[in-house]
Q: What sequence folds into this?
């Protein structure tokens, strides 16, 4: 999990980077708000950001506001770092779009717990996005089945996208993740099964209950 640390105090930035790296995070460190915004809006952006409230250029709350207005990055988990601890400040920070708020000097256990919550949220969001893509792919396959489907007029095999011919059962199972079960329809029962039974001298009247 990649995490951004935006902190203008060199010592605090170093401690955060060392601590988070020890916990297994890939850390990207910047020292002002504009650099933080570029990092969060760039390719392969971190999913979590620790933002100092007071930074050169854009402050942490402004970075939060801009990220929340960016639909492509609005799901980023944002944590404000600040020495401000009044309820009014906390409200302002959260209203700016921050997911969480850590007061400096921070406790390592609290930092680990709050960042861990952020990681869980980001991973759930990523799993949800992957599931949505799977459903979209499945829907596309269903639409394909509802469209024109090439079927051999003799053997009834189906032609797939790679121009291979396969049995209907195999085609449906592959594209719809469905197990095929076989039965006998009433017409085939009357035209195929009953005559064969009659040839063997079986009274077909006794089979009516099975039709």
A:
């Amino acid at each position: 999990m990649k995490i951004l640390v935006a902190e203008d105090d060199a010592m605090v930035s170093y401690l955060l980077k060392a601590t988070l790296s020890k916990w297994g995070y890939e850390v990207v460190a910047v020292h002002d708000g504009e650099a933080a915004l570029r990092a969060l809006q760039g390719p392969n952006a971190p999913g979590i950001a620790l933002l100092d409230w007071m930074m050169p250029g854009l402050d942490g709350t402004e970075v939060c506001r801009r990220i929340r207005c960016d639909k492509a990055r609005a799901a980023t988990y944002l944590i404000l770092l600040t020495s401000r601890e009044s309820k009014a400040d906390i409200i302002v920070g959260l209203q700016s779009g921050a997911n969480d708020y850590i007061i400096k000097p921070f406790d390592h256990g609290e930092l680990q717990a709050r960042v861990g919550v952020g990681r869980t949220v980001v991973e759930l969001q990523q799993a949800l996005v992957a599931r949505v893509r799977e459903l979209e792919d499945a829907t596309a396959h269903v639409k394909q089945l509802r469209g024109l489907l090439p079927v051999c007029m003799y053997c009834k095999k189906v032609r797939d996208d790679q121009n291979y011919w396969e049995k209907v059962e195999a085609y449906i199972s592959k594209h719809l993740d469905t197990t095929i079960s076989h039965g006998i329809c009433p017409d085939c029962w009357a035209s195929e099964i009953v005559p064969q039974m009659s040839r063997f001298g079986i009274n077909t009247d006794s089979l009516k209950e099975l039709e």
Remarks:
- The chain has three domains: 2-129, 148-180, 183-211.
- Residues 21 and 27 are 6 Å apart (CA to CA).
- The mean pLDDT is 83.
